[in-house]
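Lab channel / #folding
Pinned by the channel admin:
"Please post every new chain as: sequence first, then the structure tokens as a reply. Keep commentary short and put observations after the output so the thread stays searchable."

First post following the new format, from NK:
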Amino acid sequence: MSDGKDSFIPVNDGPSGPGQIRLTKTTKITTLSGAGLSAESGIPTFRGTDGMWHNEELMKIATPHGFLANPQRSWEFYNERRGNMAKCDPNPAHFALAAMESAGYDIVNVTQNIDGLLAVAGCKEILELHGSVWSIKCSNPACSSKPYENRDVPIVDIPLKCDVCGAVERPNVVFFEEMLDPSIVAKADVRTKETDVFLIIGTSGIVYPAAGFAQIAKAFGAYVIELNLEPTPLSMISDETITGPCGETLPKLLSTLTGGEVRL
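Reply from TO:
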């Protein structure tokens, strides 16, 4: 963690609320975002009604064994998801985070979202805990091929086959019953422990291990700010909780914390 004297400037006068600190270019800022970040972009929910998709249980489509049992059907599901997400654009919250990075602030975005909207908005320092729907990888864990980006909508020749080993390819997302990528989790853990200001954006703080990062940040001395539609279990450890749509609250907060340098 950075030296607090240089990483941000405390503001002690006035009531508690947004703006009680000022960020500097040496501040290590880390965000943890969930579905609430992309809600105003119109990203459809994952599960749908009662966890069903076209009268099929998602556990038969979005699990490792379900995918391998019927990769065609699983790809049809993800093709539809990709098509829906392709219609959505970043909202002001995404652009505000990208503006922070462009202005030279040290910010890393840890996200549970697979929609890729942070990258579309212009963010480069992103750790995607659950992968990306726009990335494809081989289903054979022993294969030497690397994940690659594919933004075709729809992907016509499904299921895709690996050019290296011939196995079926799959979306590079975390299925049900799968562990998160340990290398990404490790990077997020290291960053969280050294961060100065930790922003919780649009996530309820229920699903682990992602929810644990906020607690780790707090334990290591970070200033924690939560932005959600309503208070969550993480509100208890937050130095500030700001309620409202992220597309409205986050740009205002970042403008305040940077003394107006970052604004939309």
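NK: Residues 11-19 have pLDDT under 50 and may be disordered.
TO: also worth noting, Residues 193 and 216 are 7 Å apart (CA to CA).
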